[in-house]
Amino acid sequence: MKSSITNYYNLKRNFYKEHPRVERRTWEEIDKFLNLHQIKFSGFDFPKPIFSLDEINFPVYIINEIRLQGIQRPSAIQSMTWPALYSGRDIMCIGLPTSSRVISYICPALVFIREQAPEIRRAGPLVLIVTQTKEVAKEILTHSQMFIHQSQCSYCCLFDDENINTQSLHLRGRDIDIVIGNYHRLCELMDNDLVNLKNVSYLVLDDFYRNRSARLSDEIKRVVNETRSDRQTAIFSRIVPSGLQKSNGDEFQNDALFVCVGNDDIHVSNRDMPQQIHICTMAEKRKKLQDIITEIAQMDRNFKILIYANGFKKIRITEKIVKELKIDTFAYERTSVGRRRRAMKEKVYYSKNSNHKFF
Predict the structure, then answer these.
(1) Contact indicator for 154, 330 with CB cutoff of 8 Å
(2) Which end of the chain, N or C, is less packed with Cβ atoms under 10 Å?
(3) Using only C-alpha atoms, what is the Rg of the chain?
(4) How many CA atoms lie within 13 A of 145 on its CB side?
(5) Which are the contacts of 155, defined by CB distance < 8 A and separation ≥ 6?
(6) What is the pLDDT of residues 10-31, one digit of tens each?
(7) Pair 238, 69: CB distance under 8 Å
């Protein structure tokens, strides 16, 4: 493996030049924009948001691809994150949807790569985009692939369901600028000394917060600690529970900015994801589950329900409860992606592949 030589080089980080129109923009105008899009933000010296594509000084090849994607103006997330990330700042962002999030961080990342000296690019991947599951990692690749191609950067995808030897050969075969993958596969490659992350200077933790096991938390720390200590770190998530900003963000970031799109309160789940919380005793859970399923079935004949259960035994208990309602079911435990997709054709679908607890 190549050893990192970037300790001997200074990285270019701040590429943002504030547009005169943005500089003249009053806070009264900005407040109207924030209220319209339900944006909350915090952090020292947060750059003013941009309202149009001509207010961000991306290179032509980035702007052209943005327009080819049908984007006429920045989304609410992009309006806030592009100036911050392009300035080299750490950021934590909460918001939907996935495509808008990916474009928010991939555009500054590609300019960051292109602006570095050749010897720095040859030392190993500069950008690491990592998430918890291979499904989300593949979704990230789908939304970023054309931008990467237009920027003439190289990338490597490291997913669980592909041969690890093939992936290691890909890593060794040519210089890689961007690595996209999930934590578990990266840790496997690190254990076998097959991937070098010591040159990573732009780190993205996407779909960051989910209920996760201690093992997964350890994998996240292992991957993050393998990167440069002076890296730029961007954390993106769909939801944020109370305490995330302090307990997790500060652990991996330095003087980070915080932005939340779509919430009235930055410490609660995204309002675009409706949630109901039922508090009951263990004895009441069986009937509560049946009541919820029955209520949904009465509202929509073509309903689908995804139930997470913690453990194989509880999966079987859940299956029995649902079958008592004479509803088609499909249960699986850590099965393949193909079977999961086929299962969604059924009425009820539940899994162990999560730490969400219903029972």
Answers:
(1) no
(2) N
(3) 22
(4) 9
(5) 141, 148, 176, 177, 178, 179, 180
(6) 788 999 999 999 999 999 999 9
(7) no
Q: Which two tokens stand for residue 35?
A: 């209220």
What DSSP designation does 6 have? Answer: G
pLDDT at 35: 93
DSSP character string of 254-269: SS-EEEEES-SSTTS-
Is residue 222 a contact partner of residue 252, using CB atoms and an 8 Å limit? no
> Is the backbone of residue 255 left (phi > 0), alpha (psi -120 to 50) or beta?
left
CA–CA separation, 311 and 55 (whole Å)? 51
Q: Reduce the DSSP state of residue 224 to 3 states and report it.
A: helix
Which residue in 337, 327, 333 sits closest to 353, CA to CA? 333
Average pLDDT over residues 148-177: 88
Half-sphere exposure of 6 (CA within 13 A, CB side): 26
Look at residue 75 and give its three-state secondary structure.
Answer: coil
Per-residue burial over 321-341, b if 16 or more Cβ lie within 10 Å, else e, is bbeeeebebbbbeeeeeeebe
Cβ–Cβ under 8 Å, residues 237 and 94: yes
Torsion, Cα 50 53 58 61, to 10 degrees, reads 160
pLDDT grade, residue 237 (50/70/90)?
confident
What are 243's two structure tokens?
């305490």
pTM score, whole prediction: 0.73
Distance between CA 9 and CA 120 in Å, rounded?
A: 8
What is the largest distance, in Å, between two alpha-carbon atoms of the chain? 67
Contact criterion met (CB below 8 Å) for 93 and 237: yes
When the pLDDT of each residue in the chain is averaged and rounded to a whole number, the result is 81
Alpha-carbon gap, residue 189 to 171, rounded angstroms: 10
Judge whether 299 and 278 are in contact, CB under 8 Å.
no
| Rounded average pLDDT over 180-195 | 92
Listed residue (112, 44, 55, 111) closest to 78, CA to CA: 55
